[in-house]
Amino acid sequence: MAQTTHSPGYPFGNLDWQARAAATGTVALEIETQDTVIYLSAMAGAVTLNLTVEDSVRRGARLRIIAVQNATGRNVTLGTGFITNGAADLTGVANDIDVMELIYDGSQFISTQTWQKVYDAA
């Protein structure tokens, strides 16, 4: 199930909310705004995110990824459209919630942090 919504005027422009429930495998996403949230919930398997960035997206655009794990922790791999050193991939832990923020450099999204655990089921 995929859902995309645009919030008019979210504080400095549109917020693109891309929800992916029961995602698994390779997920292709289009980034169209300066502020995007990708919400992965109840992932059915490991996920690889591949991005296509529209020409209208400018340097400094923000991308946040929220990964909600189910009873079986699922891995998230950052693929096309990301600059990573491998450390940015998420090794899933059952029932945890993890977030990451990235910034657009004009050609790819660069992680500004490692995955942050916001809920630890342990």
Whole-number mean pLDDT: 83
- Unreliable stretches, pLDDT < 50, 5 or more residues? 6-10
Overall geometry: globular
Strand content: over 45%
Largest beta-sheet details: 8 strands, mixed
Helicity level, as a percent range?
Answer: under 10%
Structural category: mainly beta
Count of individual domains:
1
Would you list the SSEs in sequence order as H and E? EEEEEEEEEEE
Supply the number of helical segments: 0
Tell me the number of strands: 11
CA-to-CA gap between the ends? Answer: 29 Å
Instruction: Give Rg in angstroms.
Output: 14 Å
Task: Explain this structure.
- The chain has 122 residues and is an all-beta fold.
- It is 0% helix and 50% strand.
- The chain is built from no helices and 11 strands.
- Strands 1, 2, 4, 6, 8, 9, 10 and 11 form an 8-stranded mixed β-sheet that branches.
- It is globular, with a radius of gyration of 14 Å.
- The N and C termini lie far apart (29 Å).
